[in-house]
Amino acid sequence: MTTPALDTIDADFPRPDRDVVDRLAKLPAANIGDAMDRLGVADSGIQAIWPGAVLAGPAFTVWTRPGDNQGIHKALELARPGDVIVVAGGGDASRALLGELIGERAINLGIAGFALDGAARDAEALGEIGMPVFARATSPAGPYKNGPFRLGTPLAFGGVPVLPGDVIVGDSDGVVVVPRDQAAAVAEAAEAVFADETNRRQAIVAARS
Fold it and tell me: How high is the pLDDT of residue 109?
């Protein structure tokens, strides 16, 4: 039974400039975390559910009751192309919040990916269709669809605060959260970290010969 009185929706929030998101998307999550003094790094329990998955985009936030995905279905109606749907599901691993069918819908809508503090399923199928999903676990069990939920509100994700419009970046090391109002400065700092590490790596390799 749904509880509409508890549902909250705010889908009208600012996103960062696309060019800033694109710059962050080209950088390793580790370099971005280093550029933020190791802040904004989600805990290591949240990882890609298929090898090679990467994602980057502004956060469309979803708070949901553990094991319930009604809010994710509503988020798909309201999110914009390029958004990353970030779900605070209480870290629950007993029921998958999404699987292949939601992934297929998300591709049609241009969603950049999902970051779940909860479980997902159909990992192999999601990899085959190329929908990035980062989650705390996988489970074959399906979700409830009763609510309540909150969309477009601040939340905690993997121990990190996330505001709607913050930039989410995920790769093989995990997920980082870049505050929207600091995104351009963090991109510049992370590019400097990347360049410095590239130079040091080249010097180390050159020393072998």
Answer: 98
Distance (Å) of CA 143 to CA 121, 151, 191: 10, 18, 40
**Strand pairing report for 113-120 and 137-138:** parallel
Residue type at 129? I
- The one-letter amino acid code at 29 reads A
Q: How far apart are CA 178 and CA 116, in angstroms?
A: 17
Token readout for 72 is 């994710």
Strands 113-120 and 84-96: parallel
Domains, in order of start, for the chain: 4-206 (3.50.30.40)
Strands (E), the chain: 8-9, 47-48, 55-64, 84-96, 113-120, 133-135, 137-138, 149-151, 155-157, 160-162, 167-171, 174-178
Give the single-character DSSP code of 146: -
Could you read off the pLDDT of 128-153 as tens digits, one per residue? 999 999 999 999 999 999 999 999 99
What pLDDT score does 4 carry? 47
Please give the Cα distance from 119 to 99 (Å, whole number): 10
Which amino acid type is present at position 86? V
Whole-structure pTM over 0.70, yes or no? yes
